[in-house]
Amino acid sequence: MGKDSTRNLLNNNTTRLYCPWQPNENKTWAKKSHKFGLLSKDDDFEAYIDEDMTKTILRIEQEQLEKIERLREEDSVDDGLILRQAQKLDIHSSSKIHQFFKIPPSDHDLIETLSVPQKQLKPLITLEQIILSKEAFKKDNNQSLPATNSQVIQIYKKIGCSLARLQSTNSRLPKALKIIPSLSNWDEILFLTNPLSWTPQATFEVTRLFLTNVKATQTKQYFQLVLLHAIRSNIRSNPQEKLDPALFISLKKALACNPALFIKGLLFPLFESNSCTVSEACILANVIAQTKIPALQSATALLKLSEQLFTLPTCIFVQIFIEKRQALPYRVVDILSFKYFCQREEAIKQLPLMWYQSLYVFTRSYSIDMVPTQKRALLTLIQRVTKNDEISFAIENTIKSAIKSNEEELETDDSDDTIVYNDDTNSNNTADGMLID
């Protein structure tokens, strides 16, 4: 006697008995179940299904299976497809994708002139320095250092070795790696994997981990201590100063998911270090240009850039944020007008062409938001600086037309006020006359 195919599904409330449906059979049996079950029928009850209904059920089932399989395939090849397409691109400062950020020949001579003195360079903080400072703080305060299990150390060192060999973005990550963001000492555990030895594909996968269900402080520190060092190391290790496509997409994902943390955790430390190169600025500017950023975050970045030393990378970042033409607060427009453009001109003898380009885009995009004092200051500025004939003439005409339109608006407002006043006077006289009569 064969084994009964009836299965039991047990839970806290009911015990149901059911028979699995066989496509080849034209009838199904519904067995007696618990009183709360939907199939509370007699034992002798038979439910017949005709051929048309059977074909319909089979067709729906096949469509559902195909849809599920298609979704699984899309999920598994999505990132791989993006990377394969990105590998066809030359992501570096001299490629076609960076034509907007290509340094003009006249500005190449100013790279050394506008470079920051060695004394003013500030080294970036590394993950190792953070861990050593924590240990030193605990020793100074007589706090016991947590002893990490030797087995845990071995496990994460092995994971680091596997991340140093990872060449595919579709590989499954170890569970021990996935739990790192949820650990209180996540930075110490992550340091055991030696992030500097990771492949770009491994950095891409770990970046995805820190973009979901992670505290903001951890994500910001990851951008600053791991991702920033990874992209700079990758660019410098390449003779042509290219950036690996996996890292380029990592930057785009990071900026799209958390623009505020990306700007504060990755861009701000790079600005403050005064060590950003032209190639790094071109690549990051390309990432910013291809990603949607809230206007508030762009305004924050422009305020920070206006405080930095005047260099070609600074010009590139200012130009790309202005080129987005987002609605900026009055404070940002005011600081860019007087602090960035006017004061820079006084301190720099020879201005790069990118400075003129930034000023041109700024006057074209934000002349409506400027007050007359700002417009006249920029007009005086462009008339005083060393002329770059074509673009200087365009900037001067833009500012003059903005000033003229502003004066016409004021005259129109004055005339409108006068007309309204006369109408009120006439109406009052008429009313008085009617009362007299």
TrEMBL record:
A GO-annotated cellular component: cytoplasm
Molecular functions (GO terms): snoRNA binding
Listed Acidic residues bias regions: 408-417
Stretch list, region Disordered: 406-437
BP-aspect Gene Ontology terms: rRNA processing
One Pfam family hit: Bystin
Membrane-spanning ranges: none
Similarity field: Belongs to the bystin family.
Name this protein carries in UniProt: Bystin
Organism: Mucor plumbeus
Lineage summary: Eukaryota, Fungi, Fungi incertae sedis, Mucoromycota, Mucoromycotina
